[in-house]
Write a structure and sequence with these properties.
The protein is mainly alpha-helical. It contains four helices and no strands. The chain starts with a helix and ends with a helix. About 20% of the residues are buried.
Amino acid sequence: MITINLMRFIMRALMIGSFIYSVNIAFGHASQGSAEVISVWVASAAIGAVSVLYTLNVPEMICVSAQVAVGLIGFTAAAVFNGWIGMSTGEMIGFALVTFVLMMIIIGVQYVFAILDSKKINERLDRSE
């Protein structure tokens, strides 16, 4: 079961990574090279792999913190590797902050969708009683 969940989490993270890569293309930071795509996918897959913590009854705050930490490190490393940003501390912190904001927006949207789904499920259960 953990393998199936791991694959699901990795696939979701790859979709999010592809979105972040698209944002980089939109702002002119990426050139659509295969090494760039692969580096972003590796960072995304790492976030997905960390997400398996949710299925192991690890407290949610630790899971989210681990995802954010791995994401910030992974995407900032990919940005340096791909030459999108330099090795200066200021550039890395700036990129990490932008990545953090994007991750918080994505996590927030997922949270809202989870709440809406729960409400729909509860309404259906209430009607069936």
